[in-house]
Structure formats: structure tokens, C-alpha cells
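Q: What structure does this chain adopt?
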Amino acid sequence: MRRILPAVGVLLVAAVAAGVIWFYAAGNVGDPTEVTAPLITAATPDVSPATTESPSTTARSAPASSESDDREDSPSTEPEPTAAPSEEPTETTVTTASTETTVPDVTVELELAGGTEARFLIFEELQGEPFTVVGVTTEVVGRVRVDRSDLSNSQMGDILINARTFATDSSNRDRAIRGPILASEQFEFIVFRPGSLIGLSGAAEEGGEWRFAVEGALTVRDVTRPVIFEVVARWGPGDVLEGAASAAVLRSEFDLSVPPVPFVANVADEIILELDFIAQPSGLG
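A:
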């Protein structure tokens, strides 16, 4: 018995030491990767009229070239027919130029800029007292294409949040989040892929405010679930869009397990996700 007790004590110490080593090693991830906002691949609805005019412009110039071919075949029709068709393409070119200049006046593409911040909030008991953990990062990228004449035609690209950069009030907790909880060495980015914009309409006027929802798919680690964000947005001077978005998700739905930690108990299943955003025209960063 005297020999067994020291052996058990050694095993316990070894187990604790191994747990500490694993905890620190798991939270020791690489530096965050610098990325740019993914492009919005779908065509903006209000661009289609301009696109349909381009083929019609080509169709109008095609007969002009065929007429010139006919003129080459019959030399007797010389100056008068040649002068008349040459003026018509000139008018077409002016029409095309004016069409091209109207598209940017209607549609503007914005990128998330400095001042954008993503957060998560989760309740736990810390040393027997209620406590709300807040994790924050500014490593967020994304784009939105706004149709200023009809906001219902606006579109969003993927929103990427770097999971390696969340910071709370505790470095030990940060290591747990980066390592065993989010596995950010392997799954560096949390991705929200927007689907439809619900309840957004009207025109973008300076000082205007809108409340709407964004339905999409949220991927955390290797698990993807549908999520709806409630959004409040304001249109400011210089085509700057500011606002906030929030949603509630469950840890259990994303298979996020919190490792047992001394003095921490009753970690909630619900997580509140928040995004304070500032988006400005691309290239102004």
C-alpha cells in the first residue's frame, strides 16, 4: 500500500503536467493570415440593363459594316452612302458612353473598413459568480454591393473572421479558444456566406436607417449551420455604410466543446454573435 500511493501521486502529477502541456501547445497557433475580402461573384441586377444595351449597340454597328461591304461591291454608290453610315456609329458611341457612366451612379461596392469589430458573448460561472465572456477581433473582411436606387437589389459577399485573433480578458481563455475550442490552427477562418436580404427596400438616402435581416450559412471549424442576422444600417456621407448585426447560435449545433477548467462551471449553450461594421467604397481603405 505504501508503494502504491506514491505511484498514484506520480501518475496524477504526470497527468496534470500532460494536460498543461497539451493546453498550451493546442493554443499555440500560427500568426493570422492576411486576406482580402472575397469578391462578390453574382451579377448586380441593376447592371443588366447596361449589359443588354451593349449587345444592341453591337447589333447596330453590324449592319453598318455590311453596308460598307455592299459599297465595295458597287463602286457607283461612292460619297453619299459612305457619309451617312459613318455618322450613325458616332451617335451610337455617345449613347454607349452615357450608359456606362450611369451604372456607377446607381451601384457602389463597399468593403469593411477600420472600426469594424466582431464579438461573441457567452455566459459562464467563474469562481461561483455569474460572468459574461466577451471575445473581440477586428480581423474581419467582407464586401457589400449597394444598389442605391433600390436596396432590395443589393448583395453581400462572404464575411471572413479570423478565429486566431479573438481576445478576451484572459490569456488562458484565449489559448483555449484558439486551440481546443475553435481549432484555429486547422480552421483559421469563421465564414458567413449570406443568402437573401429580408425586409430591405427603398432607396439609399444620406441619413437613412434600415432594419432588415440577412439569412445565410455560418461555418465554424468544419460545421455549417443556417443563421439569420438582424441588422441595423445607416447610410452616411461619402457612401459610407455603418451599423450593427447580431444573431444567437448554440454551441451544441456547432460541436463546440469547452474543456474542463478549474473555477469555471455552467458554460451556456447559447452564444451571441455581434458585428459592428463600417463599410466604405472599395479602394479608399
